[in-house]
From TrEMBL:
GO terms for biological process: methylation. This is 16S rRNA methyltransferase. Keywords: Methyltransferase, Transferase. InterPro entries: RsmC/RlmG, SAM-dependent_MTases_sf, Small_mtfrase_dom. SUPFAM superfamilies: S-adenosyl-L-methionine-dependent methyltransferases (SSF53335).
Length: 199
């Protein structure tokens, strides 16, 4: 397989694109680029996760793992402005876009960090983790994100995951049930599952 978006420094030539999206009732402008996930539009899975997410019942920060150019973290941070958000991605082109997109949309209660999975925040704790995991990076990486999410969540914290049935939703559910006290499939739509796990 050639290079894909789960790459620290994509070598594919930059070809920026501007998109407008309505997410949770607000309008956002995003700059995207080649070498970053879902360049032409906010993908269906991310949109479904954004619209389904519920604010955690406990206090604390929220982390978006595999943030890409930032649609999940930026739209949620815009709504839940009383919380701090951390947007993580291994792809440095993606993190640069996410930072610029946050500024462009006037969202400043967030930090964007280059990070392999959750390594950059492993010493912090969170009220929620949200992720549209990088399926193309393989099951080991996806399940690693689920394990690291469990590690950084506070007791009573929530993990929100979007994953397609054909791309491993059943095995992700099994993995979550090994670690979390409560796991539910909140939404099933067009083959996508929104999973919520409570620590």
């Amino acid at each position: 397989m050639g290079e894909h978006y789960y790459t620290k420094n994509p070598s594919v030539k930059s070809d920026r694109n501007r998109i407008a999206e309505e997410l949770r009732g607000s309008r956002f402008q995003f700059t995207t680029d080649s070498g970053v996930f879902s360049k032409k539009e906010v993908d269906f899975g991310s949109k479904l996760l954004i619209e389904t997410f519920e604010e955690p019942e406990i206090e604390g920060d929220i982390v978006d793992v595999g943030c890409g150019y930032g649609p999940i973290g930026i739209s949620l941070a815009s709504e839940f402005s009383n919380r701090r958000f951390y947007l993580l991605d291994v792809n440095e082109r993606a993190t640069e876009l996410a930072m610029n997109n946050a500024i462009k949309n006037g969202v400043n209660n967030l930090s964007v960090m280059a990070s392999d999975q959750l390594s950059a925040v492993k010493d912090k704790t969170f009220a929620s983790v949200v992720t549209n995991p990088p399926i193309r990076a393989g099951k080991q990486v996806v399940h690693g994100i689920l394990e690291e999410a469990h590690h950084v969540l506070e007791k009573g914290g929530t993990l929100w995951v979007v994953i397609q049935k054909k791309q491993g939703a059943p095995s992700a559910i099994n993995k979550l049930e090994e670690m979390f006290q409560h796991v539910e499939t909140v939404v099933k739509k067009k083959g996508y599952y929104i999973l919520k796990a409570v620590k």
